Every structure is written in structure tokens, then in C-alpha cells.
What we know:
CATH topology of the largest domain: Rossmann fold
Largest sheet: 7 strands, parallel
CATH class of the largest domain: Alpha Beta
Helix content: 25-40%
Bound molecules: 2-acetamido-2-deoxy-beta-D-glucopyranose
Shape: globular
Mean pLDDT: 93
Low-confidence stretches: 1-9
Strand content: 5-15%
Number of domains: 2
Strand order of the largest sheet: 3-2-1-4-5-6-7
CATH superfamily of the largest domain: Glycogen Phosphorylase B
Radius of gyration: 22 Å
CATH architecture of the largest domain: 3-Layer(aba) Sandwich
Distance between the termini: 17 Å
Structural class: alpha/beta
Amino acid sequence: MDDQNGLKEAQVVVVMVPLPLQSHLNQLLQLSRLISSYNIPVHYVCTTTHIRQAKLRVHGWNPLDNANIHFHELSTPAFICPPPNPNASIQYPSHLHPLFEAITQFRQPIAAIFHALSSTAKRVIIIHDSMMASVVQDITCIPNAESYMFHSLSAFSTFLYFWEKMGKPFPVDAKILQDLPSQEGCVTPEIAEFVHTQVNYWNFSSGYLYNSCKAIEGEGVFIDLLAREEITQNMKQWAFGPFNPVEVCDEKKPSDQRHKCLEWLDKQVPNSVIFVSFGTLTSLSDEQIKELAIGLERSEQKFIWVLRDADKGDVLVGETRRPQLPKGFEERVEGKGMVVRDWAPQLQILGHESTGGFMSHCGWNSCLESISMGVPIAAWPMHSDQPMQTMLVTNILKVGLVVKDWARRQELVSSSTVETAVKRLMASKEGDDMRKRVVEMSGAVKRSVEEGGVSRMELDSFMAHITRS
Ligand SMILES: *[C@@H]1O[C@H](CO)[C@@H](O)[C@H](O)[C@H]1NC(C)=O
Ligand SMILES: *[C@@H]1O[C@H](CO)[C@@H](O)[C@H](O)[C@H]1NC(C)=O
């Protein structure tokens, strides 16, 4: 750090406080990589178990190689850790309620870390998940600290949330509001209460951060709407996503170091494989697994299917259910399809030229990774913000189609619905058009994060702001 700004930069430290769920852990870990590349030390704070999980699962780079990222492990509080219930009528993973209750215990140890850092740095910048606002509230007692709130969803979903909350202060294009999904069934009452509590502590932020960019959010419409005074009251905001790497260097490692599904993809023709994965917070019922399996088989398309149960509150302890496939399924689809039970390298799979479609729950990480890699989506929302992101991907961006209609969320998705959706995405003119659009969008996203691109300039602007003298 011999450049002329070195001294100033060394006096600023950044602290990341993620929500301890995979998709949130990952976004702030990816952001740590971006910020540390400006020669600013980043302190990533979470429990021992969740830090271990985040490091194990990150793809595209190795956090251990980065000397500018420091991990602060909080001792993991004791909480009960039941298995997910694949038969629940609301698919939000209610087995995580005890983890959400345990989060309040992070407040004191995190405050102690803030205090320690504030005594040695000129300025402490805290970047926290919007769902950790109550946990970091003690920063208001630290004179040289300022905090920035990270919204882990699309600007589209976040805007509509604020717009409703503010009493719809101005009209928005009717096309945006058409067919908006019901909020019913998105979360359990306990989680709605948790969110409500966090929102009460959204009052000490110095700015909002988004893992998104204009190239993704309807040509910037939703980011601009979020910036309107009626919505965020002139709060400063920056959108410099996607945080995930946008190029996968498939360095052709020796085959014993590559996941077996990448080896399998090498043998397929371009855009011929659909990747099926519903993220870390979904458990499918036995009946639903059966319908999906039959639908995939009948579509006669190649597939990689990640079949796992939802994460438990602590993914490192105890047994997990092994979801059952119909009898003889794996033998019948041999050569056509592959079922993966372990952690799959999603970014590399999406970045592989043989992958031509993604059947996804539309969690925001998955949407960003799919769009970055130019892969169209067959949307199957499960809970939370996923029905909203389904709208964005299908109705607005037109880079995907719907498999699961949220209005019929209590019903099983039949094998024939699966079959039709897979064929439409992988083997029709309509699917080809979506693929063309998403490849163009991917190009725009890649340019956006390069030197001089819109996302990179936003990140430069944020870095200049937090290191200002
Ligand atoms: C879910 O329901 C099926 C029957 O439809 C039953 O066999 C299974 O044990 C149930 N699983 C759990 C975890 O309750
Ligand atoms: C923010 O809100 C919390 C909870 O409602 C309250 O206790 C606190 O005093 C408020 N802080 C500021 C800076 O307004």
C-alpha cells in the first residue's frame, strides 16, 4: 500500500455482519472480496459454525488466499436444531425459528468487536444485513462508526416493499403491478415478526447497499425508483452487484479435483443440459420429488438435479434426510441425467457452455448467478421473496418462464407441468429467444463490473465515500 492514499485507507476498516443463512452469508462474503481488493481490511463476523459453512461453500475464489479478510468467530450459541419438515403447508423453513431466536445473543459479542476496532481505526464502517439491524444497534454509541445496510434482495422486490410500506406515495407503471404475487404463504408468522422487529432498527443507517445493477433491474428503472425521495428519504444508496464473480475460470483442474458433474458436462453439447436446484432452504415432499422426477424423465432433456434437504440451523451437526427418488429412476436416466446429493458448484455449472437452462427457486443469489452466466430460468418459487423475483425474471426481464404458479402454491406441481416447462425452456423457439436475451444481459452485466462500467463506478464511489477525509 505505497500509493498516496495508502495512509488514509489504512485508517478505515470495514466490518461485515451477515445474517447466518447461506444466501446472506455468501453475499456479504463476496462483497468482502470486492472491498478488500481496494486494500481495505475487512472483518467478517459470525458464529464459528456459519463462518465454516460460508468458507466451505464459496465458489470462484478462495477466502483463505485473501490476507485482507479477517474472520471473527463468535461462539455458536446453543439452540435446538430440528430437521426440516418437507410436508409443511408453508414452505418457509420453520425449523430455523430457534436459530432466529438465538441471533439476539450476538448483540454483546458483536458490540465488543466494534469497540475494539474503533479504538485502533480512524473510522469503522459496518455493513450489516438488513435483518441484523437490531443486533448492531450499539454502533450508535461509537462516535467513529457509521453503518450501511445491505438489502439482500433485488431492487425490484425492495422497491415494492418500500412503496407499499410508504402508502404508495406515487403511481407506478401498471405493468409492474399487474399479477403481483400474494404475500400470503411467503413466510411464517414468527419470521414476519422477526422482520418487523428488524425494520424498527432501520433508523441509524448512513446508506443502503444493493447486490444488483442497472443492467439487471429493468434497465435501471427499479434502482431509480428506489432512489426517489418519497421512498428512501434521500438516503444514500449504491448498487454495485453482482457481487459474485462474473467469469468462471474453469482452469481444467486435474479431474480428481473437479466435481464429477463438471466432468459430465464436458461431454455434453452446448446448451443441452438443464440444471435443477432449489437452493439451501427448500425441502420437497416425497410426492413432489416423484412428480419432478417423472417430468424430467419424460422431457427427454439432459439434466443435473441437486436433490438435497434444506439446511439445518447448524449444517455441521447431525443427520440429514436423504430424499427418496422413484424406484429405478437413477438407472433409467443413466447417461441422460445426473442426481447430485452433495454441495454442487453452482456458479461453475451455470458458467459451463453445456448448461442451457436453470430450474430455480429464484432466490436472489441464484437469479444473479444465472443472469451473470447467461442462462434462462424455469422459475419455481418456494417462499420469501422468491415469488417476487419470479415476476422480475419472467414478466419483466423475459429471461424465464414459470413452472410453479404462486397462485396455486398449495398444489403439487404435476409431472406434466414439469415436462412441458422443461421442453419449452430447452427445446423451443420461445426458450431460444429467452436464452438470447439473457446472453445479451450477461454481456451487459460483465461490462458493468469492468473498469469504467456502471457497477464498478458505483463501487468506486462507495469506496471513495467511506475513505473520505
Ligand atoms: C411426510 O408425509 C409422508 C406421507 O405423505 C410421510 O411418509 C413422511 O413420513 C412425512 N415426513 C415427515 C418428515 O413428516
Ligand atoms: C431507533 O429505533 C429504536 C427502536 O425503535 C430506538 O430504540 C432508537 O432510539 C432509535 N434510534 C435513533 C437513532 O433514532
